[in-house]
Input
Amino acid sequence: MYINHAMDSGNIEVLSCTDASDIRLNIVADHNTQKHQWFHFSLHNAAAQLCNLTFDNASSAAYPSGWQDYRAVASYDRETWFRVDTDYIDGKLVINHHVEEDLIYFAYFAPYTTERHRDLIANCQAAADATYLGLGQTLDGQSMDLLQIGCPSPEKKVCWLIARQHPGETMAQWWMEGALATLLDDGNAIGQALLEQCVFYVVPNMNPDGSRRGHLRHNAAGTDLNRAWRNASLDSSPEVYLVRQKMEQTGVDFFLDVHGDEGLPYNFIAGSEGIPDWNPQRQAQLDGFKQALVAATPEFQTQFGYPIDDPGQANLDIGSNFVGQHFGCLSMTLEMPFKDNADLPSPLYGWSPERATALAQPCLLALLRTLPQL
Output
């Protein structure tokens, strides 16, 4: 029996793996930081055994409150990820699972691999309404990929969608699959209606280096990209720097940054109410979008979310706050759960890649209904 983490987004330190009933592990911190919470690894030759996997350093994770009521995911085929019994006891995260096959994968959330990202970009590039734009390279030499969907024109709104600034929040890129499928399907009425009025600039993965390295929140330099927008640089945050450079060329009328939240078991929107230029018109736009999304899907709610910043006190290093202030547009962050949607629980799968993908179309429908206000 052994554990392997030498894979795309692999992350674990093995302390002991000789007894299936007492496997001891540590989660490895992001490079140049102490932040850790993402894990992804495979367990080999443990079939027909009740396995007990204990994460000894769970209490020092970036968001230890996120372990409450959390259940890890596992897969035998890397396609279907199901939830397994998980407890947080005395500062340690413990997975108990009767393993059925000799190869099983465990992860914090269903991984979204570099190869799947490359396939997504290649497949979208072949669509009639899509144009591929390579913005440049990351610190690890990976490509920063941008897709332009639709044709720009003066009368069209410019809409930016970005995901996975925090690489461990893989549900964000699953959401991107759904968004791109909606926009590029010439038989989808929502997508086609949007492309008549908008051009989209889509970054499916803002943090390719952190994604491949198995980081929770940071890039190859140890920079939290969603705290780097005001002073982005090619040395420490080239991903944000390159995207900002392109935004200056296109302008921005609508911005949605897609994330995942470790603690809250809900889908919710975090607006940019605390920026200096916030005004009643922007409040009406934000309220209109959220109301349209509530009407579009029971997966979304407005009761639970982050505290609203006091007027003028928003952190402009955060992407949605910076873009909202700098470009004077409706700018938001969509948060999805690592756990489950408490309003519509799924005991076997929890919040899943399939549900994240499906949430994208209602979000785009909400945008379509909000366009007259922008």
User: Anything to note?
Assistant: The chain has a mean pLDDT of 98. The domain at 114-373 is CATH 3.40.630.10 (Aminopeptidase).
